[in-house]
Amino acid sequence: MNGAFTREGTDGNWEMTLPDVRVGSWWRDWLELSKPRITISNALACVVGFWTAGGSTTHQLPIFLGTLVGIVLLVSGSCMLNNWIDQDIDPLMERTRSRVLPQGRLHPMMVAIFGILSVILGIGILAFFVNSWAAGLGGVGALFYIVIYSLWLKRVSTWNTVVGGISGAVPPLIGWVAATGSPDVGGWILFLILFFWQPAHFFALAMLNVEDYRRAGIPMYPVIRGSSETKMQILLYVSLLLPTSLALQIVGAVDGAYIGISLLLGSVYLLLAIAGFFIRSEEKWSRLLFRYSLIYLVGMLAAFITCAHGGG
After folding, report:
1. For a surface tag, which of 19, 160, 273, 276 has the fewest beta carbons within 10 Å of its beta carbon?
2. 55 vs 64: CA distance, rounded Å
3. Distance from C-alpha of 238 to C-alpha of 208, rounded to nearest angstrom
4. Could you give the percent of the chain with pLDDT greater than 70?
5. Contacts of 140 (CB under 8 A, 6+ apart)
């Protein structure tokens, strides 16, 4: 059963009302708070890092399972805390006003407690079942997402997307150190690939929702700098992405058809970024770029898996 939590009276305390009870939706609210798409994509990136590093799901099964459970708890808990932090600005945006906390479907303090416990448990599992490198990197990722991005930069600086991207680039590196015991050049290249991918992806999304961000007072790059400068930033990061992706083969982490796949996917991405300066409809271009960024990511993750020296 779900009620609605609202602030009542002059003391600002949270009270529960039951005007619209929805049987069986409680678990869906918690699932939504964990942002399952983000959690699954980060877990997949972590698994890809583990496999690309030569990790074995047979001989290292306890480590692999510990890594997977730890990253899921860590990311889902961080997402819950992000929802809790953003509860004051989410009602101002069209695409976020129907989320759980703006709708008052769960108590904010309960969400905060569960989020903190999930993050702590995730880091603890990584430390106990995997290694200190995985736990430390997980802690750094959570710190950047929860504190530096959500609490601070998201509200005050156009650097929010770029700096916040550090947290999204950590999962494959966690997978890598889980398999090898420590980071090395291959793991850092995976980190950079995910790091350079994120600005173009999220800048395109911000261009599609620029009025939403402006209304909420969030200083996203296209809100403050405009579309022309945003397109230049997108081109910059896509240009950095292509040679970085090729470096993974140079260090011997992958073989086979990887170089052809990364060249094809990266070249199309670069051409689309350049096309933004010539296509009249910025909305159509932004939507096309955003969708292709997802295709690029899925294609590259598949290339990592199929062309890596995985241990099996």
Report:
1. 19
2. 8
3. 18
4. 91
5. 166, 170
Among the listed residues 143, 145, 149, 293, the one whose alpha carbon sits nearest the alpha carbon of residue 220: 149
| pLDDT given at position 11 | 44
Does domain 1-181 match CATH 3.40.50.720?
no
DSSP state, 147? I
Q: Give tens-digit pLDDT for 92-124.
A: 999 999 999 999 999 999 999 999 999 999 999
Inform me whether the pLDDT recorded for 70 exceeds 50: yes
Region 233-262 average pLDDT: 95
- Which residue intervals of the chain bear CATH 1.10.357.140? 1-181
Task: Write the pLDDT tens digit of every residue in 75-100.
Answer: 999 999 999 999 999 999 999 999 99
Give the sign of the dihedral formed by CA 224, CA 229, CA 235, CA 236.
Answer: negative
CA distance 19 to 34: 25
CB 175 within 8 A of CB 67: yes
SS3 category, 29: helix
**Distance between CA atoms of residues 248 and 41, nearest Å:** 21
Q: pLDDT tens-digit profile of 175-195?
A: 999 999 999 999 999 999 999
φ and ψ at 13, to 5 degrees?
Answer: -75, 155
Query: C-alpha angle 8/10/11, rounded to 5°?
Result: 85
Give CATH for domain 184-312. Answer: 1.20.120
